[in-house]
Amino acid sequence: NNSNNRMAGLACHLAAIVVVVAAVTVEGKRGPLVYGAANSPISTESDKAKCSSVTPVNGSEWVLMLDEEFDGTALNTSIWSIRTNESHCEPCEPELYLPGNVKVESGVLVITTKREQAIGPGGQLFNFTSGWIDTKEKWYQQFGKVQVRASLPQSSVTGIWPAHWLMPNPSTATPPNVCWPVGGEIDIMEYTAIPGVNHIFGSYRHGPTCGNDQQPLPGSMYPPEWNPNPTINFTDFHIFELEWNSTALIFRVDGSCFHVRTAQEAPIPQDPFYIILNTAIAWYFPPNPKTPFPALHTIDYVKVYQRKPAH
Fold it and tell me: How many C-beta atoms lie closer than 10 Å to residue 303's C-beta?
C-alpha cells in the first residue's frame, strides 16, 4: 500500500523538523543544517553551488500546456478530481478530505481546513476536514516547468500542512501502477506551521524498491541559509516552481533557485507525472486546542510549460 509505505518517510520528516527547531532554540539561528539520507547528503551550501550553475531557460523556449486560472464558480472536472470522503496515509493523517472544503470563487481555488468531526467510510472518527484535488489520469506531463501561485495558511495554525506535489500517473508509469517511491515523488512545496520555522521545503523522494525511501528527510528549505529572508510572509502570494528535465530537478520560489537534484545524485523521473494540491494536518506536530481554524490555502493559478524541442 503506497499510503502506508509513506509512513516511514513521514516519520523521518518529523525528525528533520525536530532538528530544525532544536537549531533555532539552542543557537538562536539556523546553522549549516544538512538534509537528506546518510548516503545522499544535501546541504544548503551544495544547493547554492548547484543553483549558481543553472542556466535559465529563455522564456521564448517554453510552450504553455496547462493554464488553470480557476475562473468561474466550479472546478474544471475534465482536468481535476476532488478527493471525496477519503484520508491519506490512513490512519496516520487526522484529516478527512471532503468536496465541500474545495471551492472556486473570485478567480481562485480555496482549500479550507476545519476543526470539525466527520466520520470516514470505514467508520473512523476524524477531528479535521480538508481538501485535496489532483489531475490523476486526466492531465499529466513528462518534463517541463510547473508554477503554482499560492497563499499559504498563517503560521499560527500549528500543524497545518499544505503541499503542491507530483506523482507518477499510474497508467503511463513504468511499470504501470508503480509502487512508492520507485516511481518518485516530487514535492514542489511543503509547509508545516511550526513555531520558529518559517520555511517551505522542496524535495524529491525516490527508492529502488517499494517502501524504501532514499530521501526520507526534506530536501532543502526556502528561504535558504545563504539568502535568509526573516520577513517573508507565506500568507502573501508566492510562485512555487519546479523545472524538470531528463537530468535535473530545479526548485524555485518567486524565480529564486533554492534546491537542485541531478541525475548524478538520484534517478530523475522519466515518466509523466500528475499534479496534487492539498492541505493535510501534520500528525507529527498536531494542532493544539487553541490553534485557530479554519485555515485557508488559496491557489491563484497553476501553469505548466513544455520546453520547445531542440532544432
Answer: 18
Alpha helices in 177-222 (DSSP H): none
The Cα 264–Cα 184 span in angstroms is 16
CA atoms of 146 and 201, how far apart (whole Å): 16
Structure confidence by residue, pLDDT tens digits, 5-39: 444 444 444 444 444 433 332 222 222 223 333 33
Per the CB < 8 A criterion, the answer to whether 282 and 159 are in contact is: yes
Task: State the pTM of this model.
Answer: 0.88
Interatomic CA distance for residues 296 and 286, integer angstroms: 17
149-182: pLDDT as tens digits: 999 999 999 999 999 999 999 999 999 999 999 9
CA–CA separation, 82 vs 100, rounded Å?
Answer: 10
Q: Taking the CB of residue 264, how many other CB atoms lie within 10 A of it?
A: 8
With CA atoms as reference, report the closest residue to 235 among 168, 157, 291: 157
Please provide the size of the chain in residues.
Answer: 311
